[in-house]
Write a structure and sequence with these properties.
oxidoreductase activity; 7 helices; Elongation Factor Tu (Ef-tu), domain 3; FNR_nucleotide-bd; 17% helix; FAD-bd_FR_type; FMN; 18 strands; alpha/beta; 3 domains; 30% strand
Length: 317
């Protein structure tokens, strides 16, 4: 855990705010790589993940961007309405689950809305290393597109193409054209709202890009239909304790009530903080953190949102 000071709070658009975070004494922060995020600890024991969008060469500050989401469970509202310049907040050290592929011949970056934050850091790193890349930044309108001045003043400005939903047809993202030819050594990176990401990922898969070439990071999970949820059991391998998971509770909430400690953060299957090994049984995966290939192995699951297809899961806890 790190104590940092909010040294600057800037409204990038009407509903996106950026925070500059620095050590209170001005000393260096732990290093990070492009695509990394931090956990921001908020009131009422909320923990939310935000990508770092500044250059990884900067050792004195972290920069995050936060969208004020009308469907927020409280995290983004807390940042917008309660955190102010001069506040001391707690964060984790950076973690990177969305890193650039080392040695890639070429990179194609796709950003939708607030999903631009990790993509900006990637563009900074790629241009600094003279790597070949292009960046596509999509938003509903130009007015909703944050960090435009940042991009215009960057060394990678010429690599960026902006696409607006309300603009003319000629400037809209032609995904089939951009991804028309799957090339060995080329990697795709996608971040943004679920609908945008599904659009890009489906196109990439349809056009023949391999799973190893596609990298993604979700900011939130799609709504889940709970109408068919049923009860099942989980067994703790180390103690033999068995817990019934009712249809209206998650594995994580039941185990937390029983004093079984599992690290957690997003509570919706996005961040992977609560990822738990499964020794027996078949999970019903509902996360967006793992790939389809990892789901197929059925040897780990996210107890914050995933459930079970089998009557019981034996957990490596």
């Amino acid at each position: 855990m790190l104590d940092v000071k909010v040294t600057r709070k800037t409204y990038e658009t009407d509903d996106i705010v950026s925070l500059e975070l620095m050590k209170p004494d001005g000393s260096s922060l732990p290093s990070f790589t492009a695509g990394a995020h931090i956990d921001l600890h908020l009131p009422d024991n909320m923990i939310r993940q935000y990508s770092l969008f500044n250059s990884s060469t900067e050792t004195d500050r972290y920069m995050i961007g936060v969208l004020k989401d009308p469907s927020s469970r409280g995290g983004s509202l807390a940042v917008h309405d309660h955190i102010k310049e001069g506040d001391i907040v707690q964060i984790s050290e950076p973690r990177n689950l969305f890193a650039l592929e080392q040695g890639a011949r070429r990179s194609i970056l796709f950003a939708g809305g607030i999903g631009v934050t990790p993509i900006l850091a990637m563009a900074e790193q790629l241009v600094r290393t003279n790597a070949e890349f292009e960046m596509h930044y999509c938003a509903r309108s130009k007015q909703r597109m944050a960090f435009m001045e940042h991009i215009a003043n960057s060394a990678f400005a010429s690599n960026v193409q902006c696409h607006f939903d309300d603009g003319d047809e000629a400037q809209r993202l032609n995904i089939d054209q951009v991804l028309a030819t799957p090339e060995p050594g080329t990697h795709i990176y996608v971040c943004g709202p679920t609908g945008f990401m599904d659009y890009v990922l489906t196109a990439a898969e349809t056009l023949g890009w391999s799973a190893a070439q596609i990298h993604r990071e979700y900011f939130s999970a799609a709504p889940v239909d709970h109408s068919q949820d049923g009860a099942f059991e989980v067994e703790i391998n180390s103690t033999g304790q068995v817990f019934v998971i009712p249809a209206d509770q998650s594995v994580l909430s039941v185990l937390e009530e029983a004093g079984v400690d599992i690290p957690m953060a997003c509570e919706e299957g996005v961040c992977g903080t609560c990822l738990t090994r499964v020794l027996e049984g078949e999970p019903e995966h509902r996360d967006v953190f793992m790939s389809d290939e990892e789901h197929a192995l059925n040897n780990q699951f996210t107890p914050c949102c995933s459930r079970a297809r089998s009557a019981r899961l034996l957990l490596d806890l």
